[in-house]
Write a structure and sequence with these properties.
The chain has helices spanning about 20-25, 40-45, 60-70, 85-90, 100-115, 155-165, 190-200, 220-230, 245-260, 270-275, 290-295, 305-315, and strands spanning about 10-15, 45-50, 75-80, 120-125, 170-175, 180, 205-210, 215, 235-240, 265-270. By secondary structure, the protein is of the alpha/beta class. The chain has one domain: Rossmann fold (3-Layer(aba) Sandwich). The longest helix has 20 residues, at about 100-115. It starts with 8 loop residues before the first strand and ends in a 5-residue tail after the last helix. The structure holds NADP nicotinamide-adenine-dinucleotide phosphate. NADP nicotinamide-adenine-dinucleotide phosphate binds near residues 80, 126 and 180.
Length: about 325
């Protein structure tokens, strides 16, 4: 341990990204999120430092070393990732590609320096570390080990699985999420928002009617992070809906609620798609979050309840 008199600093990586930027709004009490009232950096008496990618690259050991020397952060939250699964797939097998480097090498760098400075690392991961194959189906609990064969996962999922393994759970917590949503954020990046956005643009493709997933409500991720900041519990945590959906039934439910239309969504089986790209998407996926809910006191919601909140909030946005 380099610094025994630890500062109350929280260092955030990937704070300009989709989830990270919204966490910053939440933590700093900004934004239009009514769920954020009971969290503020001042209540926690922490100082939040969120350098952007240019200021701090997790692949740059010198930059990491300088900032840790300066801040000796008590908590480090890693939202930084190569998250675009399509571009990651083009890098399959390439250990010099940005997906491998960011999701594995960068995480290893963070893990090492957090150990050196005794910083508690909270790392964000994904449901894509599980295959979702019929012979090993989800929903997966917090205790399930990530897939150990690269050929059973997308390249993105494989790099995230390897990223979890390099952490070795030393002074760290892993939070797995998947299909994240919360109205008010960028609709195109939001799992539910994207369906609505494409529907409104008349560009919605048929949705899978035999893929099984869970939905993650973004404010629940923030609650988990907030509790982990306070309690520093090591281990693996899941943030997911209490039940499983197919994209088709979720789309139908959303459009019925938003537009009072039924039968507006086309469904399609994954079958043909899986023959071309067998491991790009999990079919029988999803996360179970009961252990996390019990341990951290985070309320579990059904996916329909998450959509109901989404619809209610969208209704409150002018011109939505
Ligand atoms: N969004 C989802 O649907 C979803 C679902 C499941 C899991 N997750 C996980 O949640 C986490 C956050 O995802 P997100 O959707 O917020 O991702 P995102 O929008 O793509 O943001 C990623 C962030 O990481 C930064 N970054 C990339 N490489 C970096 C590096 N080498 N050093 C420092 N910063 C770097 C990016 O900065 P620049 O843009 O400036 O490069 C950006 O701020 C990831 O771990 C992801 O795997 C997300």
């Amino acid at each position: 341990m380099k610094n025994k008199s630890k500062n109350k600093n929280i260092l955030i990586l990937g704070g300009s990204g989709f989830i990270g930027s919204n966490f910053l709004n939440y933590a700093l009490g900004q934004g239009n999120n009514s769920d954020n009232n009971d969290f503020s950096s001042s209540k926690l008496q922490h100082r939040i430092i969120a350098p952007d990618h240019k200021e701090l690259d997790i692949l740059n050991v010198g930059q990491l070393s300088d900032i840790f020397k300066d801040l000796s952060p008590e908590i480090v939250i890693n939202f930084a990732a190569h998250r675009d699964a399509n571009s990651a797939e083009l890098q399959r097998g390439d250990m010099q590609g940005s997906a491998w480097l960011t999701n594995v090498k960068g995480v290893e760098n963070l893990s090492k320096i957090c150990k050196e400075y005794d910083s508690f690392l909270i790392h964000i991961s994904t449901d894509m570390v599980f295959s979702g194959l019929k012979n090993n189906p989800g929903p997966y609990s917090e205790k399930t080990k990530p897939e150990e064969k690269a050929e059973k996962l997308s390249w993105y999922g494989w790099t995230k699985a390897e990223g979890e393994r390099v952490l070795k759970y030393n002074a760290s917590a892993i939070i797995r999420v998947g299909n994240v949503t919360q109205a008010l954020y960028d609709l195109k990046l939001d799992y539910v928002g994207k369906i609505l956005y494409l529907f409104d643009a008349n560009k919605l493709y048929p949705l899978f009617n035999d893929q099984y997933l869970s939905l993650t409500y973004i404010p629940s991720i923030f609650k988990v992070i907030e509790t982990l900041i306070r309690k520093k519990i090591k281990g693996v945590f899941h943030v997911a809906s209490r039940n499983i959906f197919t994209p088709y039934e979720l789309g139908e439910y959303l459009i019925k609620k938003m537009k009072s239309k039924t039968g507006a969504i086309k469904g399609v089986s994954m079958g043909g798609y899986l023959r071309i790209a067998p491991h790009r998407y999990p079919q029988y996926g999803g996360l179970l979050a009961e252990e996390t809910s019990k341990l951290l006191g985070v309320k579990l919601l059904d996916w329909q309840q998450i959509i109901d909140v989404f619809v209610e909030k969208m209704g409150a946005i002018p011109n939505a």
